[in-house]
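User:
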Amino acid sequence: MTSYGQYCPVARAAEILNERWTLLILRDLLGGARRFNEIRKGVPRMSPTLLSKRLKSLEDCGLITRRPASAAGVVEYHPTPAGLEVRPIIELYGAWGQRWVRNRLAEDELDVSLFMWFLRCSIDKQHFPPGQTVVCFEYTDRPRLAKGNWWVDKWWLIVTELAVDLCVQDPGYEVDLYVVTDLRTMTRVSMGDIPVCVAVGSQAIELHGSRSLAKKFERWLPRSSHADVTRPPEPLDLSHVLKSIGTEAAE
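Assistant: Predicted structure:
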C-alpha cells in the first residue's frame, strides 16, 4: 500500500480503504461471503492472485481474520470489529453513488453472473413454500455462448428452507416459475429505476408457472439496499425553447 506520509486519520484510513477492490471485498464480506470462491464471485474481474493478495493485506491491517471451516482444509474469512465498523462507510458510498454517480447502465456494466449471485445471496426465502422451489431465469438479451454442454442465457435458483443454490446447468428438477426478461430490465428493477409492478405489467418481465410465486414476485425479488435513495431531478431540456426564441428573434 502507498503511504500518503501524513498522520491525519483520514489519510491513514484512505491508505487501506482506497486500495483498488478493497471496498468491494469488504462489501461482500459484510454481506455474508466467507469463502474464497464466494468472495471471488462478487468481484469476477479480479484475478485469484490479486484477491489472495488483498485478503492477506486486509488480514495484516486487522480488518479480517482467517478461521478454519467445518470442512477439512477450508478457510473462511470473517470481519473483525475494525472490519465491521466499515459498514456505514460502505453504505454511505453506495447511497452517494446511487444519488449522484449512477446515471447510466453501459453494456460493460451489465454482468449476468454478478447479478445472479446477488439474487442468490439476497433472495427472501420466507416467501417460498416449504420444500424445494426451482426458479429459472432466462435472459433474452444474453448471447447463447456454448460452454461445454450448457448455455449462459439460463440460470436456475433452487430455494429450500436452509439454502439457496445457483446453477448454470439444468439441475434436472421441475421448474416452478420461469422468469423471462432481459438483463438491463432486471438490473433497473433491482436498482429502483423501474417498479416491479410496472415491469411485470408491461411484460418487460414475463412470469410463467406458479401463480402463487408470480403473485409474490415483488416480495421475494431482492432489490439493492440503495434502491430507495432519492435522486436530484433531471435537468430540464430547454434546447427546443432556446431554439424557438432564436428563430423568433431572427424574424
